[in-house]
Write a structure and sequence with these properties.
It is built from 24 helices and 16 strands. The relative contact order is 0.07. Helix 5 runs antiparallel to helix 6. Among the domains are: 94 residues, Threonyl-tRNA Synthetase, Chain A, domain 2 (2-Layer Sandwich), CATH 3.30.980; 256 residues, Rossmann fold (3-Layer(aba) Sandwich), CATH 3.40.50; 80 residues, no CATH class.
């Protein structure tokens, strides 16, 4: 009973679940449509699809941002470029291996000689090819016999070594009275061999692991040196990395022009003929190349920008010109960044005077050679964009002219600026200002100059001379040099009231004043048919073009057709190339790129006033003979100087530079010349080969004088 009661009580026990008072339930009433939308499987699927789409768009956007980021491009290009270097190095190695095991190199050179029609060179390369084939056959026969010879030599060496070690052991055993010493040397050698084997066993693993990487690095270096990577793989970080300018680089750059005749010629495997191999010339590299038939140097010059890309240079640093024949390319390539060096200090800044009949200092060529502006029997036009140096160039010319005590200066500036105020004490005519009365004064001065032109014509007739010479300029008979500068000439020429008459006078003066020692310099921004009379631009022998905006201004300054022929001031970069100009008429070349000297006229650093004061002091030594003129560096003839310093006997090449330096102490190239450099110049430029003769390399005066006579004969033929 008790048990039943207890069991019933247990069955009747109720365990209540815990309850939590959650407070009020928050919610909102929705419509049936909203409920269906929230609980619809299709709606849920569309929501998931939209979420996935947003994720894909986000990933794509991030991927695109990463892929197009400059750092990603740089890293990607670097990886591809270095991989290409390795492949290029493998190709270089393969070509070398192939050429060393075959006659491929000689066959290529023979084809080139045959195409050029050079039978002598063809015969020489054929003989060399046969000799190389014989040597290669001998090496192969030796290799077949090498295993037996090596085994025999090894056996003899081992036997001799063991015998020597046993003999040494016997001597030690007798000396030490121990019979065991007989094999002591042999045991020592065996121990040494065991030690070497142990070291090699330990080092073998790292060596095997490192060998492939060493090989890859070697191939990378070969490929990089050969310039195997295309230009589009270059990064901004490598923009200043230079490449070696040699025959291979030049040939590759010419090939990249895709001129059909050059492409077809190089496809035959024939090398280009370098009449002058690539060699250092001043601040760059010079080479002379005979182009394949049907290609003119002018055609290459028209593609100067494209050629520059193949040489890893700016267009203004590459100067292709026509050599002695239409098909000979004379190429000069500036060292990278050569323009950044500047022209340096004006050479007459502190002392010296000038003879204007010899020209005035103007600047330096890219090669680093000083260049003078010829002034007598010349007129000069100077132009360019504002702020690029045209006024500074005119200032340099007038400063040089001022240092000739016999010269008269006249300067007109139809604008309000300070560029030429410091010249005022040295001028017989000076006008500055753009007002109508100032332009009228300029017109009056030009009319006076025009009358002077006519008066001097009568003096030439009186003294029966075709043109003014230094002798008559010194005689105080009214034939002294006059240098007239019209700065900002376009302002005066385009004046509504006086411009037409000023234009007419300028044309007459440039046409007639040249032989009468009246030299006109006109400076303008951008010469056009409206801002500068065509007869002025056509009659200016000297042209100075700073950065200009189009081919019209370029040809007005440098002559008709200059742009088409590749002489382009349009390729000078405003600001970057400030102070750099393309000039015509200064040398025998069609044009030169020149870095112009700079003279400051600011109050804090006035460099012109001391020059003007010196010129005024020099004028006090007149009348009569002008003050002694300081010699300005000019080009020298090496053969003529050698003729002067060499006697009748040979002189070692190493001793000749000192003789030349003593003969011409002011000529810088002789100060840096060495015996080896002299030999190379004589061979490359004059065809004079200096023999070694006991390693003395004697320079024979007879050979030099024969070359000098041949040069003189060639000059006479050229004049005819």
């Amino acid at each position: 009973m008790n048990e039943h009661t207890t069991e019933s009580a247990e069955l009747a026990t109720v365990h209540h679940l815990p309850t939590v008072d959650s407070g009020a339930i928050e919610g909102e009433f929705i419509t049936e449509e909203e409920y269906q939308r929230l609980t619809s499987e299709k709606a849920k699927m569309m929501a998931r699809y939209q979420g996935y789409r947003n994720d894909v768009v986000t990933v794509a956007r991030v991927t695109k941002a990463v892929a197009t980021h400059e750092r990603t491009k740089t890293v990607g290009k670097a990886l591809v470029r270095n991989a290409v270097y390795v492949g290029g190095g493998a190709k270089v190695l393969a070509v070398r291996a192939w050429e060393s095991s075959t006659n491929a190199r000689y066959e290529r050179l023979m084809r080139g000689a045959e195409l050029r029609g050079d039978m002598e060179a063809l015969k020489e390369w054929d003989e060399r090819a046969e000799a190389a084939k014989e040597r290669r056959h001998s090496r192969r026969m030796d290799m077949l016999q090498a295993p037996g010879k090596v085994a025999k030599a090894l056996a003899i060496s081992v036997a001799a070594g063991i015998g020597f070690l046993l003999a040494l052991g016997i001597v030690l055993a007798v000396a030490n009275e121990r019979i065991s010493d007989v094999i002591a040397p042999l045991n020592a050698v065996i121990d040494a061999i065991n030690w070497v084997v142990m070291v090699l066993t330990i080092a073998w693993g790292p060596i095997v692991l490192a060998a492939p990487w060493v090989a890859v690095i070697g191939l990378w270096h070969l490929g990089r040196k050969a310039g195997a990577a295309p230009g589009w793989l270059a990064t901004s970080a490598e923009s200043d990395v230079d490449v070696s300018i040699d025959e291979t680089t030049i040939a590759a750059a010419l090939s990249a022009l895709r001129i059909p005749q050059i492409t077809a010629y190089l496809k035959t495997g024939s090398p280009l003929q370098f009449l002058t191999p690539a060699r250092v010339d001043g601040r760059g590299t010079h080479a002379v190349v005979r182009l394949p038939a049907g290609v003119t140097a002018e055609k290459v010059a028209r593609r100067r920008g494209d050629l520059a890309t193949g040489l890893h240079r700016l267009a203004k640093e590459v100067w292709p010109t026509t050599g002695s024949e239409a098909g000979i390319l004379d190429l000069w390539v500036a060292d990278k960044g050569a323009l950044a060096e500047g022209a340096g200090e004006y050479p007459l800044l502190t002392d010296g005077v000038v003879d204007v009949f010899k020209g005035v200092p103007f600047g330096k060529t890219l090669r680093g050679n000083p260049i003078n502006a010829p002034l007598l029997e010349r007129n000069t036009i100077c132009g360019g964009m504002p702020g690029q140096g045209k006024s500074s160039a005119a200032r340099i010319i007038m400063a040089g002219a001022a240092l000739d005590p016999t010269a008269e200066l006249r300067i007109w500036v139809p604008d309000a600026n300070f560029d030429f105020e410091v010249f005022k004490p040295r001028c017989t005519r000076y006008v500055m200002g753009a007002e109508d009365e100032k332009i009228a004064e300029i017109l009056a001065d030009l009319q006076d100059l025009h009358a002077e032109v006519q008066r001097r014509g009568e003096l030439l007739i009186k003294y029966e001379i075709p043109a003014v010479t230094r002798e008559y300029a010194n005689k105080n008979v009214g034939l002294h040099p006059i240098f007239a500068l019209l700065e900002e000439a376009h302002v005066a020429i385009q004046h509504p009231l006086y411009g037409k008459e000023i234009s007419r006078l300028l044309v007459d003066i440039v046409r007639l004043g040249r032989k009468r020692a009246i030299n006109l310099i006109v400076s303008t921004q951008a010469p056009t048919k409206d801002s500068m009379p065509r007869d002025v631009t056509r009659n200016c022998s000297n042209g100075v073009a700073f950065a200009v905006g189009d081919h019209v201004a370029n040809d007005a300054l440098l002559g008709q057709g200059a742009y088409a022929a590749g002489h382009r001031a349009t390729e000078l970069i405003p600001g970057t190339d400030k102070g750099t100009a393309v000039v015509k008429g200064f040398t025998g070349e069609r044009s030169e790129i020149v870095q112009v000297y700079f003279l400051d006229v600011s109050r804090d650093n006035d460099q012109v006033t001391p020059i003007i004061e010196r010129s005024l002091a020099a004028m006090k030594s007149l009348p009569g003979t002008p003050a002694p003129a300081r010699e300005i560096p000019v080009a020298r003839d090496l053969l003529e100087d050698l003729d002067a310093v060499l006697g009748d006997t040979t002189v070692p090449a190493a001793d000749v530079p000192a003789l030349l330096a003593a003969h011409a102490p002011g000529w810088e190239p002789y100060k840096r010349l060495t015996g080896k450099g002299l030999r190379e110049i004589l061979a490359a430029q004059y065809g004079v080969k200096v023999p070694s003769t006991g390693n003395r390399w004697p320079v024979d005066p007879v050979t030099v004088r024969e070359a000098l006579a041949k040069q003189a004969t060639a000059d006479l033929d050229g004049d005819e």
